[in-house]
Design brief:
about 20% strand; alpha/beta; D-Maltodextrin-Binding Protein, domain 2; 12 strands; five-stranded mixed beta sheet; about 35% helix; rod-shaped; single chain
Length: about 325
């Protein structure tokens, strides 16, 4: 019987004693027992004396006595025989049967507490962030690489999501922070960042640009030009990350009927850059480019929009890991 340990000692005892006449002594209501009472009983058994047990667990003898009385009352059985003349105690028959269960339960209880402590520590050392899937970078890769170097024990879950999805996840608490990238013409909701409550969210600008680049195969004759105009780009195929952008022209003088488009998953960076290098299409890029064999970046002539990137984070989370990341991002801030 004693080898089975249940999360609640009271439930365990009730199950074990249901086949015993002692069942009639169990209290009604199913209240959970205070683990302190069990720890006191273990101390009394260990030191065979109320006074010595009181000394060892930093309680008064009267408090120890009250704990044992309360425990015996809740169980409906006596655990100890007191021998007043010898100032010592011994287990009753029922106490001998239950004391191993007490030890097992307390060991398991403290094991649970240790596991909970580890879980809390892991949670405090874990951050959920997001960034828009980009072929280039807005500086987030450099920031995160620096963070990993400084804080190797902190885990960062990097979830790539579109702008609107990031905003939703931030507001509902699914993300701790986000590297949010927007272009004023392609994302009309760019200014929604101003809707974040400053009492709940912090905002750090990390990137701003008025430049648009076109990633183009070095085998394409257009790659030799210093800048590309709308006239140069007519009839070309552009690569976009999702269908919403497919109807947006990369240049104001370029009509949607003047070009073709292909939708690709921007999380597959190497695949897309290989595709561009082979002449499969032209990649509009409003962020920092990444070098790739066979790809050259040519600036756009006539681009007048602004691209922005912010690090937005939830305030008052109590997370030391997030505070460390925020502190690092501020070193990269444009302000």
């Amino acid at each position: 019987m004693v080898k089975y340990v249940f999360p609640s000692l009271y439930c365990f005892i009730k199950i074990c004693l249901c086949i015993s006449p002692l069942t009639r002594h169990l209290p009604a209501g199913g209240n959970r027992m205070d683990t302190k009472l069990i720890e006191t009983a273990i101390a009394v058994h260990t030191y065979k004396s109320y006074s010595e047990a009181a000394y060892q667990i930093s309680l008064s003898p009267s408090a120890v006595s009250k704990h044992i009385v309360q425990l015996e009352s809740e169980l409906g059985i006596r655990l100890f025989n007191r021998q007043t003349k010898l100032n010592s105690v011994s287990l009753t028959k029922e106490g001998e049967e239950l004391i191993p269960v007490f030890y097992s339960f307390i060991d398991e209880y403290h094991s649970i507490l240790k596991k909970v402590e580890k879980i809390r520590a892991c949670r405090e050392a874990h951050i959920n962030i997001s960034a828009v899937p980009l072929i280039g970078t807005i500086g987030e890769n450099e920031i995160l690489a620096d963070f990993y170097m400084r804080y190797p024990d902190i885990t960062v879950e990097d979830i790539r999501r579109p702008v609107k999805e990031q905003i939703r996840m931030l507001k509902c608490g699914l993300l701790d922070a986000s590297f949010l990238f927007t272009i004023s013409s392609w994302h009309p909701d760019h200014f929604v960042v101003s809707e974040f409550d400053p009492e709940q969210f912090g905002l750090i600008p990390i990137y701003q640009s008025r430049r648009l680049l076109f990633g183009i195969s070095t085998d394409n004759p257009l790659s030799s030009k210093k800048a590309l105009t709308a006239e140069d780009l007519k009839g070309q195929t552009f690569i976009f990350s999702h269908a919403v952008e497919a109807h947006k022209s990369p240049l104001p003088d370029l009509k949607p009927d003047d070009f073709k488009w292909r939708i690709m998953d921007f999380r597959q960076k190497s695949l897309i850059l290989d595709f561009v290098a082979k002449g499969g299409g032209i990649l509009p890029l409003a962020c920092k480019p990444v070098t790739h064999p066979g790809v050259r970046y040519v600036p756009a002539d006539g681009w007048k929009e602004e691209s922005h990137a912010f690090f937005i984070y939830r305030k008052n989370t109590g997370s030391p890991a997030l505070r460390s990341l925020v502190s690092l991002v501020k070193e990269y801030s444009l302000v």
